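Need residues for this backbone.
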């Protein structure tokens, strides 16, 4: 009996030792993970809650409380102009929504520069600087605009039309003009091919663009972000492109026809009077 009791005691001590060992290992692992998390938090800094959009929104779309949610964001990497208080973002709830001024993707923080004031419409006047005017460029099916053009991009504007000599030419007429609005079909409102785009331009640029759109076709080319390269005047023609620059045939002046005098004599043959031609003499 004593042997059985001693055996049970030894087994119990072994199990207790194993439990203590496993508990120490688990506690040690938990403490190591806790240290790593504290180090990561110290490296990241504090987190704050900010409002983001739940879905992609394009220029002119209303921003309502149903379109936003809160997420945690690293405080030391927080953009300027975010919203953390719903009472500031929507003072009157869904009665006076804001409107989007620049395209936003899903889970992008809402910035004050990308939305209007509560109840204020997304008008183009809010995006024009002093001395600027809004001008809309219409596109046909063969327009050279990229489907990825967005407000805030800059573009070069090219004109294509007939020159004074009759050749088809393309000229660069404006460089690095800022896009402030893009009109797309409803079914492709975010990334569809644009029907037209509106740019911010000076009155002189508006005059050139108006004349270019009236006398030919305008197309645009996207300029890289931060590209400040000076662009020299550019012009090309069908003649220069294809190499068939034959000289046009000269137009000769028309010569007036000189009237040739006719001379004749009149004679009678029986009862008939006949005129017979003869050489004219001076």
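Answer:
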């Amino acid at each position: 009996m004593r042997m059985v009791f001693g055996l049970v005691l030894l087994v119990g001590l072994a199990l207790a030792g194993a439990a203590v060992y496993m508990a120490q290992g688990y506690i040690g692992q938990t403490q190591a993970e806790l240290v790593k998390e504290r180090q990561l938090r110290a490296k990241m800094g504090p987190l704050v809650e900010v409002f983001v959009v739940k879905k992609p929104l394009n220029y002119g779309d209303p921003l309502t409380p149903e379109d936003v949610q809160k997420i945690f964001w690293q405080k030391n990497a927080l953009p300027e102009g975010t919203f953390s208080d719903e009472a500031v973002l929507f003072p009157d709830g869904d009665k006076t929504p804001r409107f989007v001024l620049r395209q936003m993707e899903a889970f992008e923080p809402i910035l004050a520069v990308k939305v209007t004031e509560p109840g204020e419409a997304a008008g183009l006047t809010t995006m024009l600087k002093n001395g600027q005017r809004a001008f809309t460029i219409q596109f046909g099916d063969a327009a050279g605009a990229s489907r990825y053009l967005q407000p805030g991009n800059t573009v070069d504007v090219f004109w294509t039309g007939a020159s004074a000599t009759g050749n088809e030419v393309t000229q660069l007429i404006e460089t690095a003009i800022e896009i402030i609005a893009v009109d797309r079909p409803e079914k492709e409102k975010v990334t569809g091919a644009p029907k037209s785009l509106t740019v911010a331009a000076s009155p002189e640029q508006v005059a050139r663009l108006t004349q270019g759109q009236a006398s030919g076709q305008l197309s645009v080319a996207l300029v890289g972000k931060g590209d400040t390269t000076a662009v020299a005047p550019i012009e090309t023609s069908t003649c220069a492109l294809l190499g068939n620059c034959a000289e046009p045939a000269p137009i000769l002046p028309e010569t007036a026809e000189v009237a040739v005098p006719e001379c004749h004599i009149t004679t009678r043959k029986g009862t008939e009077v006949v005129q017979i031609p003869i050489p004219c003499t001076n």
